[in-house]
Specification:
Length: 275
């Protein structure tokens, strides 16, 4: 289904929260944010918009981001700048609960935290701090505890902002949204169930296929992990832009070329918790 139609249907049905599941290496969610801004400018969204992003760290005292905050980051999505300039409150979701390594500065503290989380590190020897931190994220990103800690913390932040006059939109990795099962038994409800399907809706966002003769994708099935499998998510599609700005610093905002390269993917990878 086309995202624009789906989104309007959800808010017209009284949903207070829209979860957008993304592939962390895709531009589709950025195109999706541009679509939301277009709907706002057309007057089709008549409520205050609050946007939460897993790709951003939560600020002290749960402050909303300003353009000045974004200017201090290594890279910035142009869509985030546009949201703020159009009076959308932007918040980071990632904190020291969902990302327990975020403020650790030594190998000793990182390895201790890995063990505290019940992750198996074995007898692995690390070359340096960066190597240690990489493996910490690698192990944590593929664990059930990552899904559970993230889901609980993210939902608590979202619920704090939900009210009758606000539409809350949250962009998260797709695996945070659905129920997780092991041998058919639920081991994690997922964000959609935690928030309540009467209050929230969710979709996985992707681009329309280049060859439109193929049937549109109806659902998205996240890949199973060692601890369990995920329920499918409704899939929505957006048009792929011909030209994108890359992730950029504010002082380089004039650059217009889009770079679908390994360097870009590596950059975006470092902005995300799940390695």
């Amino acid at each position: 289904m086309e995202f624009e139609d789906w989104f309007l249907e959800q808010i017209n049905n009284g949903k207070k929260c829209i979860l957008i599941g993304e592939n962390h290496y895709s531009y589709a969610s950025e195109d999706c944010l541009d679509c939301i801004l277009k709907l706002q400018k057309q007057g089709k969204i008549n409520k205050k918009i609050v946007f939460f992003d897993e790709n951003l760290s939560a600020l002290d005292n749960l402050e909303s981001y300003t353009v000045e905050h974004l200017s201090k980051l290594n890279t910035v999505e142009p869509s985030l700048i546009a949201l703020i300039r159009n009076n959308v409150e932007v918040y980071g979701l990632e904190d020291n609960v969902s990302n327990p390594f975020i403020n650790l500065k030594s190998m000793k503290k990182v390895t201790a935290r890995i063990k505290d989380l019940g992750l198996q590190i074995g007898n692995r020897i690390f070359n340096d701090f960066d190597h240690c931190l990489y493996w910490a994220y690698h192990l944590y990103g593929k664990s059930l505890v990552r899904v559970q800690r993230g889901n609980e913390g993210f939902c608590n932040q979202i619920l704090h902002k939900m009210d009758e006059d606000t539409i809350v939109i949250a962009r998260v990795g797709a695996k945070h949204i659905p129920t997780v099962r092991k041998d058919g038994v639920v081991i994690e409800e997922g964000m959609l169930q935690r928030l309540g399907k009467d209050m929230a809706s969710a979709c996985f966002i992707t681009h329309f296929p280049k060859n439109r003769t193929y049937s549109e994708q109806k659902t998205y099935q996240p890949e199973s992990d060692t601890f369990g499998s995920y329920d499918s998510i409704e899939c929505c599609m957006v048009q792929k832009k011909m030209i994108h700005q890359p992730d950029l610093t504010l002082w380089a905002e004039q650059k217009k070329e889009r770079k679908d390269t390994n360097d870009y993917k590596d950059t975006k990878k470092h902005r995300c918790t799940i390695m």
